[in-house]
Amino acid sequence: DVVITTQLTADLLEYAEAGGRILVLVRSASALPADLEMRRRVEAHLRRLPHAGWPGQRSPWEGDWVSSFSWILPGAFPQLPGRPLLDAAYEEVAPDHVLLGYDPVKHRDEVVAGMFVGWVHEPAALLWSFDQGAGSLVLTTFRLAPESGPVAATMLQCLIDRIVEPRPVRR
What CATH code would you report for 2-164? Predict the structure, then answer.
């Protein structure tokens, strides 16, 4: 069974710990409460929310003037346009939020879509999958619902297919 939600709760996290699979469509910073003990320390951040320490307190993930690059691993979604940088084909699902806490070295096998700023600074995830206890969590900030375009529908179906696939046993 797969649970699709826009709000991760303690009960859902317990469900994942027991072997459940959860797809979280992150549409707000409160979708991932800070008091939940996820296996990864993930925080949802609004792309246009001021960020302390940046010039003018602006957010580095705003993407003005081509200062940020959103990417998706080639082959991650064979049914979708297969280019590494997200372009106008992905406009309908372009995220309003990013997932902070992503380390490109430590989490390289868990993140198939993300964003970086300038010369590869401030990496953030847009699609992050990881084990949680005996189950798993898939977190995405792509706008997949209630949007109804072909990219949103295809990407949502691909994520559902991916999360229901049997996972290899880790030894």
Answer: 3.40.50
